[in-house]
Design a protein that fits this description.
This protein is α/β, with parallel strands linked by helices. It has two domains: 171 residues, no CATH class; 301 residues. Helices cover 52% and strands 7% of the residues. Strands 1-3-2-4-5-7-6 form a seven-stranded parallel beta sheet, with helices on both faces. Strand 2, helix 11 and strand 3 form a beta-alpha-beta unit. It is elongated and about 90 Å long. The relative contact order is 0.09.
């Protein structure tokens, strides 16, 4: 009786579909860009097993709908036993190699190898995830039957089936993307904004009236938010820069406008421009328009070094557009970031181009991760043709970036996808943990553009088309921190890479999506061409920044 009750709850269960799911599970044990622990591997295994099961169900449904012949009796059982034997053999072979593959990848990233595969832990989490996915599928199927039954009362069965499927699909889309869920996320984002406006434990505003957020500033300190306050109050000052270079230096200018400082992207951009003018930023030698990450964070490893390079004769401006982590902002607040970056670049470049060419700073744009995407979007062709900026430096550009994808497709034949060569290198160059953007067959032209991207960064190299085809980089010889055992499997590879994105932020520095100061320094030198700067200076600044307590250089001491 218990078995019968369980069967009624579970419903019909397909062994062939389960075998396909287990093959997907086995494929998920192969390496991708980021090493996986047992918990993560179990979650991935359970998810792809459910997807394999679903794929089998869909194929079976289409087979029956096409009225194709079906095996029954002894031939069907024999075929099932053969499929089970093959599945078991593949599963055991992959299990025997999985730990070696994962440890090989860990060692290439400087991580401690795992002592054991922890198979039982993997299987436990896989079973939990598969059961949850299966139950969710049963609920969706029940919803479809309920809706279809209502349509049966007023229309023929075939029409009711089609309309029932469309109705359920529309309901799911509404809930998961454009309806209730979006409203929840928007409310969550507003709650962050409200919380950041309180600042009961916030430090006092800067005492120097020249700084953003001070008593003399146009930007309200209480509305800037923690990421902006950290950016404004950190970084090297004139004394620290002079102590390193041995030359006179200036205090760098840092302007940051928080999301709560203005109602619209345009309002925040105009406020940032006014603050730049107040602080005399257009009288500096270098001006950088930066786009922050989703939370508004500005990577000190990206900004501290370039201030040392130019003896502090530099200004940097940024405007916040979200409080969400970059992966969430990438999916849920895409347009917000693009609009803010465009508004800021329009405002700053619009004023900059009115100044005499020999009496204005060199203008550069910069962004990391989601900030790189929004910065690239804002750097449009019409602005470059009108009065071009001096250059751009983008780190960890997310895979959907239109401009990055366009540039990637221009790579010279034979150059790797993860570190391509673009023409003669006079306009665009690439850097990574093993390259510094200095190698090219020609010198720099009027404008200098550099990309910093790690070969193991799935935020950059995730490929939506990996649902059915291998990503371009998987067809190249593997880079130094990539596995030698890539195996492309439709559907499974895409979910491996999707999970890699979530794991990439915790990678060791120089791998995954963990960009750090040492790898910013040489590309910044290439793009901004500091006066009198040498390779020896680059090496010395790398050593100096390596003494910092965090990712930046401002806490370093000689």
């Amino acid at each position: 009786m218990i078995a019968a009750a369980v069967a009624r709850v579970i419903g019909p269960f397909s062994v062939p579909c389960l075998l396909l799911g287990l093959l997907f599970f086995a494929a998920s044990l192969t390496p991708s860009l980021i090493p996986r622990g047992p918990v993560v591997q179990g979650i991935l295994g359970g998810l792809v097993t459910a997807l394999g099961y679903l794929a089998g169900q869909i194929v079976g449904l289409l087979w029956r709908a096409a009225d194709m012949p079906r095996l029954a009796g002894r031939p069907a059982r024999l075929l099932t036993w053969i499929a089970a034997t093959v599945t078991a053999a593949v599963f055991l072979w992959v299990l025997g190699s999985s730990l070696t593959w994962q440890n090989d990848l860990r060692e290439k990233m400087g991580m401690t190898p795992a002592d054991a595969l922890n198979l039982w832990q993997i299987l436990f989490f896989a079973l939990v995830v598969f059961a949850a996915a299966f139950a969710l599928g049963r609920l969706v199927a029940a919803l479809f039957r309920l809706v279809r039954a209502r349509f049966y009362r007023v229309m023929p069965p075939r029409r009711a089936n089609v309309l029932g499927l469309v109705t359920v699909a529309a309901l799911l889309f509404l809930v998961t993307r454009d309806g209730i869920f979006d409203r929840v996320v928007a409310a969550l984002d507003e709650s962050y904004e409200t919380a950041q406006a309180l600042f009961d434990n916030a430090p006092p505003p800067p005492s120097d009236p020249r700084m953003t957020g001070s008593a003399g500033s146009l930007v309200d300190w209480a509305a800037i938010g923690e990421p902006g306050r950290d950016f404004i109050t950190s970084g090297p000052d004139a004394a620290a820069i002079s102590a390193f270079t041995g030359r006179p230096a200036m205090d760098p200018i840092r302007v940051y406008v928080g999301r709560a400082n203005g109602e619209t992207p345009r309002a925040r951009a105009e406020l940032a421009l006014a603050e730049l003018k107040r602080q005399g930023a257009f009288e500096r030698a270098v001006l950088i328009v930066a786009s922050p990450t989703g939370t508004g964070w500005m990577d000190p490893g990206a900004h501290d070094p370039v201030e040392y390079m130019h003896d502090g004769d530099i200004a940097t401006v940024a405007a916040q557009y979200s409080y969400l982590q970059s992966p969430l902002a990438l999916i849920l607040e895409t347009e917000t970031g693009l609009e803010q970056a465009t508004a800021l670049q329009d405002a700053v470049h619009g004023h900059w181009k009115t100044l005499p060419a020999d009496a204005r700073p060199r203008l550069y744009v910069h962004g990391l991760s989601l900030g790189a995407w929004s910065s690239m979007h804002a750097t449009n062709l019409f602005r470059l043709m009108d009065d071009p900026i001096d250059g751009a430096f983008w780190a960890g550009p997310p895979f959907p970036s239109v401009f990055w994808n366009y540039v990637q497709r221009q790579r010279e034949p034979g150059s790797p996808w993860v570190l391509p060569q673009i023409g003669d290198g006079s306009l665009v160059r690439y850097a990574s943990h093993t390259a510094d953007a200095s190698r090219a067959t020609a010198g720099w032209g009027r404008m200098r553009i550099a990309f910093l991207q790690y070969s193991s960064d799935p935020v950059v190299f995730y490929d939506p088309y990996s649902l059915w085809r291998a990503p371009p980089w998987m067809r190249d010889p593997p880079a130094e921190d990539m596995s030698d055992h890539f195996v492309f499997v439709p559907v499974v590879t895409q979910f491996q890479l999707a999970l890699d994105m979530a794991l990439s932020f915790g990678s060791p520095p120089g791998h995954g999506h963990a960009y750090y100061a040492q790898d910013y320094i040489a590309p910044w030198a290439e793009v901004t061409a500091p006066q009198g700067w040498t390779q020896a200076d680059t090496t010395r600044l790398k050593a100096h920044c390596d003494k910092g307590f965090q990712a930046g250089c401002s806490d370093a001491v000689d």
